Amino acid sequence: MTTTTTPTTPYVTNACQFCGASSTVELTAAEVAAWVTGAPIQDAMPDRPAPSRELVRNGTHPECWTAMFGSPE
Fold first, then answer.
1. How far is CA 11 from CA 8, 37, 56, in A?
2. CB neighbours (10 Å) of residue 48?
3. Domain count for the chain
4. Could you tell me the pTM of the whole model?
5. Is residue 3 assigned to a domain?
6. What are the phi and psi torsion angles at 17 (to 5°)?
């Protein structure tokens, strides 16, 4: 069985507003192209969970978001 993987590009996020650290996220060329041409991030990256998209969009880590705003229950 052969599996095909989509090539990715490392994307360095902005610094997190809570902890000040940046992250590196692997994005596909299709995700980058859709996002930089103006697609809403949820449309550009529909297979990524919301916390991952938030990390790409503004640098906020999921655990930092929870520390700032609490659990999204």
1. 9, 16, 8
2. 17
3. 1
4. 0.81
5. no
6. -65, -20
